[in-house]
Amino acid sequence: MTEELPAPGPVAAHPGPMDALTDVAGIRVGHARVPGPDALSGTTVVLSPEGGAVAAVDVRGGGPGTRETDALDPRNLVQRIDAVVLTGGSAYGLDAASGVMAWLEEQGRGVRVGPDPSHVVPVVPAACLFDLGRGGDWRARPDASTGRAAVEAAAAAGPGARVAEGTVGAGTGAVAGQLKGGVGTASVRLPSGVTVAALAVVNAAGSVVDPRTGVLYGEYGAGEPPAHPAPPVHAAARRRLADIGGGARPEGDAQGSGVFNTTLAVVATDAALTRPQAQKLAGTAHDGMARAIRPVHLLTDGDTVFALSTDRVSLPPEPTATLNEILAAGADALTRAIVKAVGAAEGVDGPGGTFPSYGELYGTS
C-alpha cells in the first residue's frame, strides 16, 4: 500500500541517513572488481526491491554502449526491471549483465514467460564506460563472473546500507579529465516525504575542476560558497597535471585514449512514478551532470542516466508541483554524487597511466 502525500510546501530538502542511493527503501548497491595485478576495472549493480522498479533511461552522450535500454521505452511492454548494471570494460564489459541475469533467474525474478514460476526472463538494462587498458592489461575487463559478484554483494547488503564510494566497482578504472574518477552517491529528502537519490560513475572526457580556481564545478551553487584552494596549492596542482599530460607514454598507452569516456548514473525515488514520469526524471537529471562536468555529452562520451521508481509513496491528485520538486532534486543529487565521487577517488600511477586524485592535488574537498 502506498501512502498519500500531503500538498507540497516550500522546498527545504536535506540528505537522507546515508546520503546514498540506498536511502530509497528497497534499493541495494553492490560492487565487484576485476582481479589481477594489471586490472583496473569493475562493475556496479543497483538491485531493485522484490517485484522490481519502474524504470526509464535517457542517453545524451554520442558514444554510448548499452544493453536492453530499448525495453525501457514507455511505448514498450516491460513495466519493471530488477537490476541495473553499470560496468567498465567498454562494450566487452556488458557481458557482466549475463551474470546478473543468471543470478536473478536462480531467484525466480524476471518477466514470467511460462507456466512454471521458474520460467522467467530477467530484464537487466546495462551501460558501460571506457576504461580499457587503464591498469595496463587491455584484456582485464568485467565478464559474467564480475556481474554475479556485484549482484551478490548487493543482495548481501542490508536495507539502507552504506555505499562504498571512490575507486570501487564500475569506478575502479574511471577518470575525470586528467583526474581519477570513481563512484559517488547522494540523496535528498523532500518536505513532501519523497526521497530522491543518485549514484554516479564519473568517467568524463570533460573536466570536473574549474581551471581558474581549482574548485570542483559541482560545488558552485550548492548552497554555501565553495572553499577556494590557496593560490600556491592550485598553481602546484596545475603544474603537476601539465607535467603528466606532457610526459612520454608508450605508443598505444591508455593515457592517450582517455578521450573515450562516459559518465553513468542511476537516479531513484520512492515516489510512485509512471514510466513517462520516470523518463522525465532521467532527462532532467542530466542537468546535474552538466553542472559538474564541462564539457559534457560529447561524441566520445556515452553519458547515460537511468531512473528508477520503487512506487512506495503515491503522488497527490494534482502532482505537478511535487513532480517538479522531484525533478529538481534528481539533478541536485546527481551533481553532489559527482562531487563525492571525485572527492573519494584514489589516485593511480601504473602502466596504464597516471591519474592523480583531487585529494592528492588539493586536499580533502
- Biggest sheet details: 7 strands, mixed
Amount of beta strand: 15-25%
Terminal residue distance: 42 Å
Q: What are the low-pLDDT stretches, counting only 5+ consecutive residues below 50?
A: 3-10, 247-257
Number of strands: 18
Overall shape: it is globular
The amount of helix comes to 10-25%
Counting helices, strands and paired strands, the structural category is alpha+beta
| Average residue-wise pLDDT | 91
Break the fold down into its secondary structure elements and pairings.
Blueprint: E1 3-4, E2 28-33, E3 42-47, E4 53-59, E5 66-67, E6 80-81, E7 83-87, H1 96-106, E8 111-112, E9 120-121, E10 126-128, H2 144-156, E11 175-176, E12 179-180, E13 182-189, E14 195-202, H3 231-246, E15 264-271, H4 275-292, E16 304-314, H5 320-344, E17 348-350, E18 353-355, H6 358-362
Parallel strand pairs: 1-16, 7-10, 15-16
Antiparallel strand pairs: 2-3, 3-7, 4-6, 4-16, 5-10, 8-9, 11-12, 13-14, 14-15, 17-18
Give descriptors for this structure.
single chain; 365 residues; alpha+beta; 7-stranded mixed beta sheet; 18 strands; disordered N terminus
Structure, described:
The chain has 365 residues and is an alpha+beta fold. The chain is 24% helix and 22% strand. The strands form five sheets. Strands 1, 4, 6, 13, 14, 15 and 16 form a seven-stranded mixed β-sheet that branches. A five-stranded mixed β-sheet has the order 2-3-7-10-5, with helices on one face. It has a two-stranded antiparallel sheet with strand order 8-9.
